[in-house]
Amino acid sequence: MFIDSHLHLDFDEFAPDRAAIMARAAAAGVEAYVTIGIRVRDSARVIAVAEAYDNVFCTVGTLPHFADEERNVTAEEIVALTTHPKVVGIGEAGLDRVFGDASWPAQQAVFAAHIVAAQQTQLPLVIHSVREDEAMAQMLRASSATTPFPFVIHAFSGGPLLAEAALELGGYFGFGGLLTYPGNDLQREIAAGLPDDRLLLETDSPSLAPAPLQDERNEPANIRITAELLARLRGSDVESLAAQCSANTRRLFPKAFAARSP
Ligand SMILES: [Zn+2]
Q1: Residue 84 and residue 107: Cα distance in Å, rounded?
Q2: CB-based contact 208:4 (threshold 8 Å)
Q3: Does the pLDDT value for residue 128 go beyond 60?
Q4: Fewest CB atoms less than 10 Å from the CB: which of 37, 49, 202, 261?
Q5: Is residue 139 part of a domain?
Q6: Is residue 115 a part of any domain in this protein?
Q7: CA-to-CA distance for 97 and 244, rounded, in angstroms?
């Protein structure tokens, strides 16, 4: 019933027990995964995990943290990687001067290359945006005015300005452990009010374990904790919410799910 729309199954943290983690996730109702790349030039890693499992798909991209080391990544290079059948999206890419220390011009240039790749392929762009609501909204509006493209703002941590821009442009919102943290009343308020057809569930495993597990390694089985909170916020039940979010994920990632949906 769940699709984990954003996690990092290829990370070393999962190397010792990936099969056990996926078995626990399956028992919790997770039926498919989109595992997310963080370095274009390391895409072989994330592609290898997707190749190993029928229900795992992947994306290719450069997290803003690595924008200096992949400063000259090109849209052509990203587009070429998307010809692989298991590569179903682009990213994660975006803007973040809180957790990353890459230079601002490099962050903007690398993110711009990912936008062009999303425009050319029309594959969804998985966006990482931390406290850059204005700059992000401005880049999304300007690029979408030329050629619209599908996107999700993952682990949504923005405010109304970014939420409004994303809604207007047809964007999706990914919610995971962050939504459960005590300080995030604003995001809970935004999540409660978004249209049903723009919500995705994710875990960002192994990071961002939902409360009260914040100090532990996150894993996809924990998606249920966030789903229960999001359902409660929206006056729904976890089964309907999960079904809605899975339908949304299938719509956003047609290359992964269009031909495979029941
Ligand atoms: Zn991530």
Answers
A1: 26
A2: no
A3: yes
A4: 261
A5: yes
A6: yes
A7: 33
Distance 127 CA to ligand 1 centre (A): 9
Per-residue pLDDT band at 261 (split at 50, 70, 90): very low
Q: H/E element holding 175?
A: strand 172-175
Sign of the torsion formed by the C-alpha atoms of 197, 199, 201 and 204: positive
How far, in Å, are 115, 178, 231 from residue 17 at the CA level? 35, 25, 30
pTM: 0.97
> Measured in angstroms, how far is the CA atom of residue 31 from the centroid of ligand 1?
19
In-domain check, residue 108: yes
Kindly tell me if the per-residue pLDDT of 259 is higher than 80: no
150-191: pLDDT as tens digits: 999 999 999 999 999 999 999 999 999 999 999 999 999 999
Ligand 1 center–CA 124 separation, angstroms:
15
Q: In this predicted model, what pLDDT tens digit does every residue of 57-76 receive, in sequence order?
A: 999 999 999 999 999 999 99
State mean pLDDT over 6-11.
Answer: 98
Question: Cα(175) to centroid of ligand 1, in Å?
Answer: 12
Q: Return the H-helix or E-strand segment holding 4.
A: strand 2-7
Residue span of the structural domain in which 110 resides? 2-257
Which CATH number does the domain housing residue 118 bear?
3.20.20.140
Q: Indicate the number of domains in the chain.
A: 1
- The alpha carbon of 60 and the centre of ligand 1 are apart by a number of angstroms equal to 12
Residue 100: per-residue pLDDT? 85
Distance 27 CA to ligand 1 centre (A): 23
In a domain, 155, yes or no: yes
DSSP per-residue codes, 82-138: TTSTTEEEEEEEEEESSS--S-HHHHHHHHHHHHHHHHHH-PPEEEEEES-HHHHHH
